[in-house]
Hints:
Layout: H1 2-21, E1 38-40, E2 47-51, E3 57-61, H2 71-86, H3 92-100, H4 104-122, H5 126-137, H6 151-176
Parallel strand pairs: 1-3
Antiparallel strand pairs: 2-3
Helix pairs in contact: 2-4, 3-4, 4-6, 5-6
The protein binds zinc ion (ZN).
Amino acid sequence: MVMRIFAVVFVFTLFQNVAAKAANEPFKGYDIECGYPIVVERTNRLSQAHQDQNGNFVIILDPSLSEPRQAFHRRFLIAHECAHHRMKHTTRHGLVKRFTAQHGVRDQEMSADCWAAEMLTQAGMLPQVIDIADQFWRRGFVSPGGGYPSGIQRSNMIRHCARLAVAKMRLKMARLGHPAER
Ligand SMILES: [Zn+2]
């Protein structure tokens, strides 16, 4: 529980920092809050959670995400990549699982989407999270390949996890009430 609250607080401060540094990209981002430095360089996947040759875990963002209209998309992708590192998807073991387990890629992608949706919702960004879910929905039922989930699968997962976050917040709010009000 305490860890959970901590996570919400640090993700929130993280986004404020990222927003503040966005004008000075490449920004360090995430150093303190998520623990992973951000590197801005061309990548055909837009964003990537990656372990470099020195064994450091980094988040790679494509420069196209620096455009102001990409602000929330970038934020969502940073949270998504952060989740991959936190869930150890980028360790040797995580990578083996990704490419050998049945639905390995799909499951890791959906887990990262879920974590991102939950954290951003708890940080007060539910409308933007729903926007991202709608964008995925418009991509339809077809997987982009490589074992990745379809847009509709991702959209459903993001909405589901945003809903879970709201339910958890409601529960917390209820506990704030006086015992006689419950
Ligand atoms: Zn991913």
